[in-house]
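Supplementary Methods. Inverse-folding protocol.

Structures were first reduced to a discrete structure-token string of length 538. This string, shown here, constituted the complete conditioning input.
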């Protein structure tokens, strides 16, 4: 064999290796596109990426979830899905290489991927049955067939031709594998997969548009009990402080749904049943709208909110009193002899959230909310109906996309978060935050306005104090209070000297409890400690 022929053979083997790993990627792409098409006909949550991602979320330790939320915020789901796709891409590369060595084994590896997706989909709490396995299985079969066919075009034909006058070009057989055949099959596979993916997105978009149209058709009746007029002066006139009412588009979102459920209001139903329910009830969305609605300003806080964090916001919620609905079913709180002390709410995506029955029936404005800031709930915040309970962290009260309420006991049932190490009951802790100046700001010496928000839902804020470095606590000026269920803004005029300084804030709620200095992480029942910022005065 001449040196030229040897180089040609080496180049051919290298190109075959590249084509081999590329065939794995193409097969993986085809599998995902085919799965997405089938998922559009089944339901989006049954797709392999969403199903595997949901299973991963369910099995992730609470501390890791807390870390993800703390570092990625509301992008945590995007990061998770990107990570899953990256792992799948590496898996596909490996299968492509394996198919070079063992054609059938490589194809079977793709089928294994489908089995994992199918098991994940059917094992989800919101699974509708064996049909949820179809997207992963069909996608895997499509990917396996494509990898098997592509690997067939990569079979080495033996020693390259050495006949005198035979060109190294032509069909590519001189390089030992069928280049042209591979390109033809790969091109057809990409085209078919892309077409399936586009069709799947189109079909899913059609279903989504039906839900969008359902929301657009909703006209919220005027509440029978309006929110009290917002007092003048609830918003301090200091730049950089959060608005008193958080716009819907800026309201925090923390949940486990990788795909936001889109439920049509016309088909939505809520079932109330369980221990101590003498008259079980099923209501439709229209049934709720025909009842007396209340409207209240309420601040919600996520238990994953770190000290000084952003997972807190205030909205004007419209809904039906939850206590009235439960009383209509014959439910009594434990203080009045009721046998159930836990109300378990279930959402359409399988989430379970447990709330103390005593709290939702003690006279506070706990509600099944249908509106947020004057419009129907956004899908990301629970349309068509969600729970809102003042004074409790969201993981024990704020069930979105709710479809079931069961009366039970804390001893008999552990909801989703309790099974993962979070506390059964979690009243919101007294907290405060410095909104301005920002950390590491460089204000000018002289008068500097320090301002922010404080909250202790259902207790109210009585006092806020600010300390500069290790100096004495100085009382801040409180803005007007809307209600004890909303946060309260504050401001402090600081005569700042040049140099580095640490500003710290603490709040006192209406029970006289001073915000603790003891630092605690969010698990198991919310963060505690005092918020501080470091600034350099110039």
């Amino acid at each position: 064999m001449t040196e030229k022929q040897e180089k040609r053979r080496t180049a051919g083997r290298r190109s075959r290796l590249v084509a081999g790993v590329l065939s794995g990627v193409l097969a993986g792409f085809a599998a995902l596109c085919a799965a997405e098409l089938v998922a559009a006909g089944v339901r989006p949550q049954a797709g392999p990426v969403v199903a595997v991602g949901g299973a991963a979320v369910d099995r992730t330790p609470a501390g890791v979830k807390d870390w993800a939320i703390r570092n990625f915020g509301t992008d945590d789901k995007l990061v998770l899905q990107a990570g899953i796709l990256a792992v799948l891409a590496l898996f596909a590369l490996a299968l492509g290489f394996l198919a070079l060595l063992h054609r059938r084994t490589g194809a079977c590896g793709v089928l294994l991927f489908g089995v994992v997706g199918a098991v994940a989909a059917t094992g989800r709490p919101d699974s509708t049955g064996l049909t949820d396995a179809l997207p992963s299985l069909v996608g895997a079969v499509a990917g396996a067939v494509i990898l098997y066919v592509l690997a067939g075009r990569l079979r080495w034909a033996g020693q390259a031709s050495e006949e005198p006058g035979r060109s190294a070009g032509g069909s590519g057989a001189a390089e030992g594998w069928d280049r042209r055949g591979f390109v033809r099959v790969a091109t057809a596979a990409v085209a078919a997969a892309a077409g399936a993916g586009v069709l799947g997105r189109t079909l899913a978009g059609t279903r989504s548009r039906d839900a969008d149209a359902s929301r657009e058709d909703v006209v919220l009746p005027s509440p029978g009990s309006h929110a009290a007029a917002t007092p003048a002066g609830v918003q301090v006139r200091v730049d950089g402080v959060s608005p008193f009412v958080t716009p819907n588009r800026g309201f925090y979102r923390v949940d486990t749904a990788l795909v936001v459920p889109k439920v049509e209001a016309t088909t939505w139903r809520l079932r109330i049943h369980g221990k101590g329910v003498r008259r079980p009830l099923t209501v439709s969305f229209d049934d709720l709208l025909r009842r007396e609605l209340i409207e209240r300003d309420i601040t919600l806080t996520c238990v994953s909110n770190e000290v000084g964090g952003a997972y807190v916001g205030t909205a004007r919620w419209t809904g039906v009193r939850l206590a009235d609905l439960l009383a209509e079913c014959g439910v009594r709180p434990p203080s009045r002899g009721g046998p159930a002390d836990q109300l378990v709410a279930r959402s359409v995506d399988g989430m379970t959230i447990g709330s103390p029955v005593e709290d939702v029936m003690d006279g506070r404005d706990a509600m099944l909310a249908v509106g947020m800031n004057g419009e129907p709930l956004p899908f990301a915040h629970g349309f068509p109906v969600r729970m809102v309970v003042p004074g409790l962290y969201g993981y024990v009260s704020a069930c979105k996309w709710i479809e079931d309420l069961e009366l039970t006991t804390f001893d008999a049932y552990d909801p989703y978060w309790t099974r993962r190490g979070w506390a059964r009951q979690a009243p919101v802790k007294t907290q405060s935050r410095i909104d301005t100046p920002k950390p590491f700001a460089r204000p000018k010496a002289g008068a500097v306005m320090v301002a922010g928000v404080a909250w202790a839902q259902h207790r109210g804020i009585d006092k806020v104090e600010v300390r500069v470095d290790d100096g004495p606590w100085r009382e801040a000026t409180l803005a007007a209070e809307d209600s004890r269920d909303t946060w309260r803004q504050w401001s402090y005029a600081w005569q700042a000297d040049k140099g580095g300084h640490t500003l710290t804030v603490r709040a006192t709620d209406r029970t006289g409890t001073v915000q603790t200095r003891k630092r605690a992480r969010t698990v198991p029942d919310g963060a505690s400690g005092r918020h501080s910022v470091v600034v350099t005065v110039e």
